[in-house]
Specification:
Length: 729
């Protein structure tokens, strides 16, 4: 019995040991599985967060490059900049527009302009001239300039990082060129604009906040144990690295629950559930963090609308769906009319409030499925989907204009603006995104060119028009280079004696092919292409040379408002007078009232300079716009020309005579001589004589004629003379 009892006890002990061993083995295996699972969860969570951080940092660096690239493109691909940089005023103009802004502009602290030999025209940093040559201050400076000149007008602007004497900088360069580059131009002849922004601790802090990464720092070399994002220069060499510590959310989550897990080690199921719950929370937090970063990357901070990147992504997504559903994508580009005046009058704070109000107005007025984006500045974009087989409920472009035409109440101010809209359509989403944006951009440019409050839908003929304008511009450039612009002269007749008392010079252009191009075409073309200074001075010099043969009569020459923007305009005129040995008192410069309203300070300086030289100033087309008595008094005009519309109205408007008489009486009361243009009948001439007009001009007396014809008429006329105050308007 004892043996049996011993055996039973032994077997019992063995069973207990076996069970315990099995239990220990099972527990060990389970513990091992749990440990492996914990390690897998923590490692995976850490890796996901590290990947998110690397992606966010790379996106932030790309955003910095895009911002600087967009700023460079806006400043370099600019007709006015191209005109000024190729003028004698380039240094003053570039210092005012780019050099001085480096003192406090948020997107760049350094501005450099180099000529075709890569020699600096200006080099400013933090609002002051640089005391070190740019190529010594920045590494890889020459390769960056070469990359800028190689870039086409549709290529991305080269923006990279570089070592500088002041540390690490984001630097980009773009060739200064017209918005529409002349195909015959040579990139190596262009000036190049360079902007740089140094990566200061403040910039690093902003990037850290924007991408939600703590401990971000800028270092010269990678640091073991820290995550990194490489900053490279234009030739691919490392400049610096962003480094930051891994957040290790999985490891931190495990650390938070480790005590509880150890206390509940026997309850493996609960342990596994706890790990599962912790993993789920970690993954959810990571997804939420990634979602926030993505939202920031695709949305405008001011309005909450999509930004340009968000719009591009939406168009690409909608294009795929449109192709599947056989519907059309319609892209509307919107430019606010009158927004610049709001900024100028009340400041950027009110302008920002207006932008937000516009965003709300568009959101409330357009269909829920419309994609609305702010593209930057005062430009917006709207994408809608339309079925080509169904008539839309309303026209989106018209709805946009109606929504924005209602006045805005901002800070107690009543603000009225409008909108110009350019529209491009992608049938079945087949037009590539970049091409669709180009078409909408061209349509918007055409709408702004026509005038305020216009909707223009892109047509294939627009590209033909653009090509024709480019060809005509090339012809005009060649003609001006060869001095081929002709000048005709229309006589001005003394209202009392009937003698020729002055002439007005009128530009004429006949192409090599024999086509006559009207001044209503080639003068705006010259203004848009930066040729107006050359055209204006060519007309002035030819007019002075011809008028030297008519010593007793005055000469009137029209001037474009853009010529007054040239700070050297007054000197150019006086130099031309000196070269021609022409009496300044015989010359009258004619200005339209538009320049007085758009930039009165600039007009004031130019007029004062001309009058100081003895040149007379005439106000052209009075009665066609908004010029007032105050305008006449303020600028001290020597003569006023009555607009032709007031003379034409005599034939069909019974009140026209009274209006015309009152206009001339107003000028006479201010001791301003009056010239009337566009006279075609003797009846019109008689009314003007009776009303007190001093000089008459029009087809009744003579059409525009050549200098030779005018010379014959001048010497054939009798009683030719001029009054002391007559200056031919």
């Amino acid at each position: 019995m004892q043996k049996f009892a011993f055996s039973e006890g032994r077997r019992g002990q063995l069973s207990v040991i076996a069970v315990a061993t099995v239990f220990i083995l099972v527990a060990t295996v389970l513990a091992r599985l749990v440990a492996v699972s914990i390690n897998t969860l923590t490692t995976t969570a850490d890796a996901i967060d590290d990947g998110r951080a690397r992606h966010a940092t790379a996106g932030a660096l790309q955003s910095l490059r895009k911002q600087l690239g967009a700023t460079l493109r806006d400043n370099a691909y600019w007709d006015d900049a191209f005109e000024q940089i190729n003028s004698d005023a380039r240094v003053d103009w570039t210092v005012e527009n780019w050099g001085s802004t480096t003192a406090d502009y948020p997107l760049y602290d350094t501005a450099i302009v180099v000529d075709s030999h890569n020699l600096p025209v200006i080099a400013y940093r933090n609002g002051m001239p640089m005391d070190v040559p740019p190529r010594q201050f920045f590494n890889s400076f020459e390769p960056l300039l070469n990359a800028a000149r190689r870039a086409g007008s549709s290529d991305p602007v080269p923006v990279h990082f570089a070592h500088s004497s002041a540390g690490t900088a984001l630097i980009g360069a773009a060739a200064i060129q017209p918005f529409e580059r002349d195909p015959s131009s040579k990139p190596e002849d262009f000036y190049v604009l360079v902007f740089a922004k140094h990566i200061t601790p403040q910039v690093v802090a902003e990037v850290s906040e924007n991408v939600n990464i703590a401990g971000l720092s800028l270092d010269a070399y990678p640091i073991p144990g820290r995550l990194e994002a490489m900053l490279t220069d234009v030739i691919g060499n490392r400049v610096a690295v962003f480094t930051w510590p891994s957040e290790a959310p999985g490891t931190k989550s495990y650390a938070m629950v480790r005590g509880d897990l150890q206390a509940a080690g026997a309850v493996l199921a609960l342990f596994l559930c706890g790990i599962g719950a912790a993993g789920a929370v970690t993954v959810r937090n990571l997804k939420a963090s990634e979602s926030r970063s993505r939202y920031k990357a695709l949305h405008d901070a001011l309005t909450g609308l999509l930004n340009r990147a968000g719009l591009l992504e939406s168009i690409a997504r909608e294009s795929a769906e449109a192709n599947s559903n056989d519907v059309d994508i319609k892209l509307h580009f919107i430019d606010l009319d009158g927004f610049k005046a709001v900024n100028d009058a009340w400041g950027h704070s009110v302008g920002d409030d207006l932008i937000v109000a516009v965003a709300h107005r568009l959101t409330g007025a357009l269909p829920e499925n419309a994609v609305i984006a702010r593209l930057g500045g005062d430009e917006f974009g709207v994408v809608t989907i339309e079925n080509p087989l169904l008539l839309p409920a309303f026209d989106v472009g018209h709805q946009i204009q109606v929504a924005l035409a209602t006045v805005f109440e901002i800070g107690g101010r009543t603000i009225e603006i409008g909108a110009s809209v350019g529209v491009a359509i992608s049938p079945s989403g087949k037009v590539e995104t970049g091409e669709l944006i180009r078409r909408a951009d061209i349509a918007l440019y055409r709408a702004k060119d026509i005038g305020r409050g216009v909707i223009v839908e892109f047509e294939d003929s627009f590209d033909d028009d653009t090509n024709r304008r480019a060809a005509l511009e090339a012809q005009l450039r060649t003609t001006l280079t060869n001095g081929g612009i002709d000048v005709s002269f229309q006589p001005l007749i003394d209202a009392r004696s009937g003698a020729i008392c002055g002439v007005e010079a009128l530009a004429r252009w006949v192409t090599e092919g024999g086509d006559r191009i009207g001044p209503d075409v080639f003068i705006p073309l010259a203004e848009r292409s930066g040729l107006i200074d050359l055209l204006g001075m060519q007309v002035l010099k030819k007019s002075l040379e011809a008028a030297a043969s008519w010593p007793d009569i005055s000469l009137a020459v029209n001037v474009s408002p853009l010529q007054l923007k040239n700070p050297r305009f007054v000197k150019q005129v006086t130099d031309a007078l000196a070269l021609a040995r022409f009496d300044p008192s015989r010359l009258s410069i004619e200005l339209t009232e538009g320049v007085l309203i758009s930039n009165p300070g600039q007009a004031r300086r130019a007029i004062d300079g001309l009058k100081a030289a003895g040149i007379k100033i005439a106000l052209d087309d009075f009665g066609s716009g908004f010029a007032s008595i105050g305008t006449l008094r303020q600028f001290g005009f020597d003569r006023m020309k009555v607009d032709r519309s007031l003379i034409v109205a005599l034939d069909h408007d019974q009140n026209a005579g009274a209006v015309l008489h009152a206009t001339i009486a107003l000028a006479n009361s201010l001791d301003i001589p009056v010239t009337a243009e566009g006279i075609e009948t003797e009846a019109q001439a008689q009314v003007l004589r009776v009303s007190g007009c001093e000089a008459l001009q029009g087809y009744l007396f003579s059409k525009p004629i050549s200098a030779e014809q005018l010379t014959d008429a001048y010497f054939a006329s009798s009683g030719c003379g001029r009054h002391e105050d007559q200056s031919a308007a």
